[in-house]
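ARCHIVE CARD
SHELF: 3
SLOT: left
DATA:
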Amino acid sequence: MPQYALGVDYGTNSVRALVVDIATGEELGTGIWPYATGEQGVWLDPKDPHLARQHPLDYANGFYEAVSMALEASGVNPADIIGIGVDTTGSTPIPVNAQGIPLALLPEWQGNLNAMAWLWKDHTGHAEAAEITALAKERREPYLDKCGGAYSSEWFWAKILRCKRVDPAVFEAAYSWVEAQDMIPAWLCGLPDADSIPRGICAAGHKAMFHEDWGGLPSVEFLEELEPGLGTLRARLYAKTQSAGDLAGRLDAEIAARCGLRAGTPVSIGAFDAHLGAIGSGVKPGTLVKIMGTSTCDIMVGEPPEALILGVCGVVPGSVIPGMIGIEAGQSAVGDLFNWWVNLVAPDEAISPHLAPPGERRSGGAGSSRHEHLATEAAKLRAGQSGLIALDWNNGNRTILVDPLLSGLIVGQTLHTSPAEIYRALIEATAFGALTIIRRIEESGVPIQEVVVCGGIAEKSSLTMQIYADVLNRPIKISASAQTCALGAAIAGAVASGGHPDILTAQSAMVTTPIRTFVPSPEAVKTYEQLYKIYSQLHDAFGIGDMASVMKNLVRLRTA
């Protein structure tokens, strides 16, 4: 009898569910539900561009809506769904009470942004992240050895420490803090309290400085020296972790009834979207998988690197495939960077006055048309023709500088510079950032034999993929699935149910070969080699050199 797995992918702006045949990998039905609250699912503060939160209620409603749509579209008997897997953004920690209920769902905390999920791209803890890095180095702790030598404001402890300082009432009310990747499987399984929530190594190892080499999480002494009272939280977190594909529990009967699923269906341990997206893209030793969306996450697996890879987001055993080291890096703004230009800056009239009726020019549909128009115009340009170079730091730098206070820069503008020229320069900037990451990883002794790209940008933007092939001077292979994160989650669900014995076996059955390859153009490669030298000059000058204070001083003035 046919058997199916359900993968549920919680992204920045929406949740999507995917029904997959575990024998063939055929994707039978998809459901996508945009989050209902916030601005495209994200709660913002106009006074602080570093703040980004989500409401946990959207996670529950998203599961019901997206799963119901996927099941209906698939036409399969819900009773034949044998396993469920979940991926989320991260680090996205949520304050919960002793019963494991997110504080944001309780009447006394409604509307309090600090009681919500602290979304991955929340950078409000940038000062706290710097303090964590400084103290770990001062005490000569090993905690940074597995996460690139510097702690990030996107990560677990920086966000919790920030909460303790700006809203001590929320910190005191929180019995524990739970990553979204762990919270959602626990809710699906109806686990009775916060202490029962199983934790995944993906979030723990990459974002919370968890490693068996030093007994799990950072010591109470370290946390107390960082901030008095912070160490008391450690005992209410976790001492062990599991990998995606391990069993988190079984589907709660009430939740199952609302979706038509079978009560007791196995649910996998959760993981981050990029890590399961890498599985859904066929990641293996020597393969770099780039998951390109609002941001970009780069994932590799293999043996431990020969040296510390400075600036990466973690080198963690079992965070992608059990038995292998997972390596994570990435860029904080890619799709977000292109959307910033298209939706907020480039004037409608300069692009095309006929893309949409006047009242709709800022809508999603018009935005898509604007992207298409700018891409068409930008594709007419040769590499270097615009005379522009940009830095891709509009949301800070994740890898290799690990600095959220860096900001965007465009050099070479004239009175004739067009919106399409800047659009292309921004794409090129993200490609130069990607090349910087690749060079850092290879310098550390980890060979990269192929690059596979997945996500909406890979699927929709041939211009971007060709520029990446030219800048990286490597073939760029496009993943066969348009839903690689949800597919990876479904693979984890299939393994948790026993439908496949392990991730690698499930991968071989459920992942197909890339559908398209972009080949470098020799002429463009030569030009981009010259442009990359200029990019590197700007990267080093504004990131670590003589100009490194410029962007930070602007942030200080804005804040003041």
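SLOT: right
DATA:
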Amino acid sequence: MIRTSILPETVPARLYERLERAPEERALAFYQTDGTTTWRTYAEVHAAAAGSAGRMAELGVAPGDAVVIVLSSAEPATTLVLGSLLLGARPLLVAPPSLLGANSDLPRVLSSTVRRTEARLVVAPASMGRDRDQLERVRRSTRWLFSEEEALGAPDVDAVAPHLPDPSEVVAYQLTSGTTGLPKVCVWEHRALTAAIDGMVAAMELSEEDVFFNWTPLYHDMGLVNNFLTCMATGIPLVLMSPHDFVKSPSSWLHGVHRTGATVTWSPNFGYALAAQRIKDTDLEGVDLSGVRGWWNAAERIHHNTFVEFHRRFEKYGVPWDRLRTNFGCAENIGGATFTRPGEPYRVEFVDRDALAEARTARVVDPADEKAVSIVGAGRPHPGIKIQILSPRGEALPEGHVGEIALDTASRMTAYLKNAEATKRAIHGDLLRTGDLGYMRDDELYWAGRVRERITVRGKKFDPSDFEPFLLEVQGLRKGCFAAFGMDETGQGTQRVVVVSEVTDPMPRPADEIAGEIRRQSFLRLGLSVDVVLVPTGTLTKTSSGKRRHRHFKRMYESGELQQVQVS
């Protein structure tokens, strides 16, 4: 077990401590789908980061400046993040164009982010160079580089003097939410980040014998904090794989886990669904997954049926039931807040759908009950967190009652940057109000939706995630790529439900068959008549923290901006 209590309260100090203690131990690797794994030692990682820090200093970046990084999750991005930290600058990662999809708000998001952070430097891919004139007008004092090589510099351990910040200083920024408009910017302090890392290490019972394997992007909280920064600050070896490689070939994830001897790996729910449905036995010849002690599922609603199918498909390759893990977290809290306890199976309850929707209570019923719905436990709070469930009036609710999840936590953000109104809504004294709905039972958190995304039909409340279990089963839809929202029908005093979902390219069957199955399953499973909108691949982008943007796409639907696939 890693003894985090003896480690300093800032990430740069931990990086230097690790470099001094074990410079030649493996730190970071990059996995290719051909099986090639390129390891870097702590000395090599530090030299590259220091060279990058020196180069940024030459470009005018000073401690306290913001550095915006718009790159894919490859080695240059990791070098720039660590280089920023060594320099005392504040990194902020933004998803690059190739990851944002057809209806990308990247120009607006990037412009807003640069203005709000007063970024000194933006490092973007060469493909964005065609918009150089427009982007450089956003803020005249911001330096834009449209080549990652220009920002890296030559590896040099003496390129910059060590900057050891006070724990109360700001360490980084992180985009969050943005489900209807421009994303907010979370402000993270050093001591909050290290508190998050220490809490995760304790909850997951991590040690330096572990090896992490991660394909989730670094602009996502799961990739940046739960994997990259946690491993770099604690001495756990980390293997990174491109998100593109996973989507193109899900079996490469499992091959990578096998070949690198990984013991811990992460994915959102859709990744487990994609793996279970697309990977064939012929793709896994020689693969042994028995060394993995934690298959962590987080960032979006966790579906019991997805894990059941994943276990059924891969049990024979070494995936026992009690190693499937769940987690809840958010950018405002920095990293994970709740975790399945090691050595225990994750929890799941079957509750009455009507009681959940109408009385906001989780009444446990027999799984065979026709009104039973499964709610997966997201784990128990790590040692540095206490959880309260709040009513709309801010009163604490008893066990089994659904309300807003609020965290009493040392790892929360300081504020939303230059957004006092949103900060006031989120932070109440010692409590961080997350905007998520859930309930507690026996110290376990059960996630039930988002406060501002509920759909009301004839007095019954539904969450957009209620649609996902059967959408995952519809052939021709991209896994996890959907939005659901209610349109007010003022004359009838209720809402009309619209389900928007991405189709695969190519489609395996006609669009009208796909839409018909969605309507049929919505009625059979939820008793709802729905309007169906099918859209091309890449339309329904998520936020940087992995949330679906239901309200954003509702606005696009209302304005007629969604490009639809023709349904006869």
